[in-house]
């Protein structure tokens, strides 16, 4: 991106480190912010898990009280609104802090741990995936957008399950990228495992399991029969990990699990919700307006045109389609933070489109110099 002799950066590693430093500076002033209600739930859950208990904070559904499993004020047991991999990570950190440092891992420490363990690595993975697929210029642009977007900064200062989904989803995309370049079977297996872990962070992460399988089937150079076999195997691997969640619920309270699954799966498709999923939530957060995330959908259309021309569907587009399908047809009461997973993929495609535009402008300039 920059000249090695005169430029500011000498390698892509230095560019990535600079962007990560910028991202950390923007996210570091997090401790004075009043906790969001969901954050308190995850903090309480992490604390009680570290103590060997299953109680947590609150739930949006009143089915717990109806089935005698607790209430919103005193806590519910067991908490089955979502899989608990994400809170389990923080419960492990709490336990380690108590064992080695003889101190409590506070709520604000959990926020900072979320930034260090999930948010910053997600930014790095987004740049790495973009570099592998579209080049260093696209990676730098996507990373800067992802690191400095106001709504992304605000959301990454808070603890949400969706940060775990985004992190493991990008790990899966990176593994798929390595698989497509090396052809080594271990990479699609890694991708399947990462997708399964994404589904254990939140139910919407199940989209990652399907995205990996579809990508393997559509974008692999092997014979169709082999591609389908690998895709089905990927579904089995990722789906098996996701089944840990219902198995956990069935062991502790099968009746409660059945009731919650029934509530979660009662969403009816709405054309209005589909439009809102595409255009409202992904680029606005309360009163903060991010115009370049709206451009992300222009970048999606641009990438689709390129994909049709090359007769090869882009992996990022497949991922976005699967996640949007999950939000529209499956996710119940999806809030703006459910769109956190969309952000890195939109930023990657914005980076690609911007880099292509820069190359086009440079080519026009070169042609003009030649003519003159």
Rg, Å, rounded: 22 Å
- Count of runs of 4 or more consecutive helical residues: 17
Q: How are helices and strands ordered from N to C?
A: HHHEEHHHHHHHHHHHEEHHH
The end-to-end span amounts to 27 Å
Low-confidence stretches: 1-7, 281-288
Mean pLDDT: 80
Give the number of DSSP strands: 4
Q: Report the biggest beta sheet as strand number plus sense, adding barrel if it closes.
A: 2 strands, antiparallel
Share of helix among residues?
over 70%
- The strand order across the widest sheet is 1-2
Please report which band the strand proportion falls in: under 5%, 5-15%, 15-25%, 25-35%, 35-45% or over 45%: under 5%
Domain count: the total is 1
The outline comes out as: globular
Structural classification? mainly alpha
List the helices and strands and how they pair.
Elements: H1 12-27, H2 37-50, H3 63-66, E1 70-71, E2 75-76, H4 85-100, H5 107-134, H6 136-148, H7 150-156, H8 161-182, H9 185-201, H10 206-218, H11 224-242, H12 244-252, H13 254-264, H14 271-279, E3 284-285, E4 288-289, H15 291-310, H16 315-329, H17 342-371
Antiparallel strand pairs: 1-2, 3-4
Helix pairs in contact: 1-5, 1-6, 2-4, 5-6, 5-8, 5-17, 6-17, 8-9, 8-10, 9-10, 9-11, 10-11, 10-16, 12-13, 15-17, 16-17
């Amino acid at each position: 991106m920059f000249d090695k002799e005169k430029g500011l950066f000498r390698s892509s590693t230095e560019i990535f480190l600079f962007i990560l430093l910028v991202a950390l500076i923007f996210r570091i002033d997090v401790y004075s912010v009043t906790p969001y209600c969901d954050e308190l739930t995850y903090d309480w859950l992490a604390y009680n898990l570290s103590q060997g208990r299953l109680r947590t904070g609150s739930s949006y559904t009143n089915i717990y009280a109806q089935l005698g499993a607790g209430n919103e004020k005193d806590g519910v047991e067991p908490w089955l609104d979502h899989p608990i991999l994400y809170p389990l990570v923080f419960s492990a950190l709490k336990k380690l802090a108590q064992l080695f440092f003889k101190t409590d891992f506070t709520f604000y420490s959990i926020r900072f741990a979320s930034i260090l363990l999930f948010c910053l690595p997600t930014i790095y993975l987004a740049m790495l995936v973009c570099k592998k697929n579209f080049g260093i210029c696209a990676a730098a642009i996507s990373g800067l957008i992802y690191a400095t977007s106001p709504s992304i900064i605000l959301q990454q200062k808070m603890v949400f399950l969706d940060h775990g989904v985004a992190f493991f989803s990008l790990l899966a995309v990176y593994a798929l990228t390595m698989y497509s370049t090396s052809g080594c079977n271990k990479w699609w297996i890694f991708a399947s495992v990462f997708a399964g872990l994404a589904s254990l962070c939140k139910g919407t992460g199940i989209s990652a399991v399907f995205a990996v399988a579809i990508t393997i089937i559509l974008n692999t150079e092997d014979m169709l029969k082999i591609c389908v076999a690998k895709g089905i195997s990927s579904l089995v691997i990722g789906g098996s990990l996701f089944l840990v969640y219902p198995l956990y619920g069935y062991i502790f309270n099968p009746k409660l699990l059945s009731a919650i699954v029934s509530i979660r799966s009662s969403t009816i498709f709405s054309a209005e919700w589909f439009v809102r999923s595409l255009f409202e939530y992904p680029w606005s957060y309360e009163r903060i307006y991010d115009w370049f995330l709206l451009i992300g959908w222009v970048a999606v259309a641009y990438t689709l045109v390129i994909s049709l021309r090359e007769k090869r569907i882009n992996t990022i587009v497949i991922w976005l389609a699967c996640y949007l399908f999950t939000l529209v047809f499956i996710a119940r009461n999806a809030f703006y933070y459910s769109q956190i997973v969309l952000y890195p993929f939109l930023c990657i495609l914005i980076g690609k489109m911007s880099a292509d535009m820069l190359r086009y402008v440079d080519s026009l300039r070169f042609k003009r110099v030649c003519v003159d």
